[in-house]
């Protein structure tokens, strides 16, 4: 096993590491520009990341970051509504945008000789959006349709929304990225103008360009288009923390559905907030031991093995602005009950607290992580995502390279230690989907978090 | 200002178009393995990895019992040769490789992605070879996967989008083999026997019925060795027989399905085109303008941008071995379903009658040709193309001539082809939602 890993590591020669290919600069107005060279194909992706998202939103205007993202395509002083998209399309580009809890980002993937066009348009809409009321009136309806599609009519989406709302007592991660329907119904275009003024400025943005480009040329273009933009006084963020949970929280969600489903979450630290910086890496290892591939414990023991689950997953993200949760979800196999499934999942967690994971399991994860780092280089988009996300949650893109090293150092004892500290019942939230008959034809309200494209 | 900017862009486009070099597709090499499988290969030396896919003409169009193609495909990784499902998973995970398999109407395939480091490559290839040529189809695994497919079916039934898709395909393909639902039905899944699976496997998972696509940092000799290794254990067999033609519709059909949802899911369409269809490029460009170009398409402009009716509205031709669907889709709150239907019908009718404007055509060509480099910018995208070209026996210069084919399309061709191939008066209209009275034809 050792041999495989070291051989694979050799393949990860310095030319594959981010450090050797990434160049960065900060414009005088505070905008950060990060360029990663990738000359495999004559294309590039340009992404502008703003430090604003659902976790920045106060009650009453949840979903405003996402609604504003939609309106960013609705015209500036220089360009009519929809013109942004038409110009990008005419230049062979594909474009979109996405909003998350911690970020709002816009991107264009184009032939690399078209970078200037993307930059000019992005710089324009960073400061000169017009937000016409009549466009907003239509677009907020589109957003509501998006919510109906992703949440209201999707049972698992509903469960996730109610689960998050129950789990977080203080953090804004309690609210859905797309916003509560009530808040969308009362949103005004003036709310968006205020939000835009607060957060859309060069000193709150990061430009990431990955592809067949010359870093110095990119810096020059960035200076030309983003350089003249005025900086803003960006609101200072309070250090939000979740109060310690004092006991298990449970809820059910009853909606028309056929299949039961459950989500469990344990509050965990993130890299940005961890007192012990190794803990998030130990949690990443732990999650991969449970669900990193078809040979991991969930697949092997719950889907095959005892056949209690038709699917079971575990997820943890170390790279968030605020501390989140380690999530587990699953659906019982035919003929098995929710209680059986939950019991089996909790047994797997208990086992992590009482037994050491094996060196073999950790070695498997390390190898998978190294391979996936190589595979990821097949996509300029994913490379840019990684950089943009890290920077936007307040970390450093150099973590991309340090990540593998940090994971490698995690020991079985450390995995047990984070399980003992965080994966305990008093720190747990559980939400179960209780299916109602599908023949109920009354319209149902329904969910979800994650990402939302335009 | 705006005018200036546009003219500059136009110049850039012209310059790029004449340089020629950029439009060339990847250098595709092709040969047959000794067992008779066709190989398509592109060398991509930059990253120390290789992608590989073996595609069989073994999709649900070949179902003797609905769902057997999917079940057979799912069982390949669940035990093969000397290895159990656990051992196969372990072998792949231990070297960081990824294996996926999937069955559709035409194709059933297995893909693997691995580092080219020798140990990883060998272990992955050996595993893949066993998975395709020596699956065990153990009863226990069959039963577990049968149950998983039944759960998945019942999951689909709680999604208005899935319900609409299935209803559309069933109505579209009627008695044609494409009508067999890829996922099977409750009854058919319950009835499938191990014999059914074995029969499907033995008839269709054979070398002469397979195409192998390889993209990665291996040279031609190594790629040839890999292809031999994977097909070595397969029977030579025969290609699957020709499928019957898909019949055209001769009347409009409306399918209304009551569903406890807040939105109505609308699907409209008819049989479209096949891979290699002489109208392909003309209809591709035409559809790009109608509903294939995201936010800037005519349908998006009318349904989303002007009226705020739907988050997603689109149209596409999905060419298959035989005519696959031409499909328009949207979702809107139940109370607006009638309005959305009317707008979609009007937009389609106007487009079929008038065709695109010169500006629309120019913009579409600029988008498609200017975006050509994006289509082949990663190993995984090239792999998709190789599998498609090989499976459908398309010419290897497909990507090299792609841009000139697109540039050659005229307004008149689009109008003529849409009028000949699309009959707005004979469409299937599926509406799944909570206020079905909305769905009346005209």
Automatic annotation (TrEMBL), chain A:
Domain Peptidase M16 N-terminal: 32-178
Gene3D superfamilies documented for this protein: Metalloenzyme, LuxS/M16 peptidase-like
Entry keyword Signal: yes
GO MF assignments: metal ion binding; metallopeptidase activity
Listed SUPFAM superfamilies: LuxS/MPP-like metallohydrolase (SSF63411)
Signal peptide: 1-18
Domain Peptidase M16 C-terminal, chain residue ranges per copy: 187-368
One BP term from GO: proteolysis
A Pfam entry, by short name: Peptidase_M16_C
Keyword annotations of the record: Hydrolase, Metalloprotease, Protease, Signal, Zinc
Family according to the record: Belongs to the peptidase M16 family.
PANTHER family assigned to the protein according to its UniProt record, in alphabetical order: NARDILYSIN, PROTEIN YHJJ
Protein name, as recorded: Insulinase family protein
TrEMBL record, chain B:
Chain segments annotated as coiled-coil in the UniProt record: none
Molecular function terms from GO: metal ion binding
Domain Peptidase M16 C-terminal: start-end pairs: 192-367
Residue ranges occupied by any Peptidase M16 N-terminal domain in the UniProt entry: 38-185
InterPro entries: Metalloenz_LuxS/M16, MPP/UQCRC_Complex, Pept_M16_N, Peptidase_M16_C
UniProt cross-references to Pfam families, sorted A to Z: Peptidase_M16, Peptidase_M16_C
Protein name (record): Insulinase family protein
Species for this entry: Sedimenticola thiotaurini
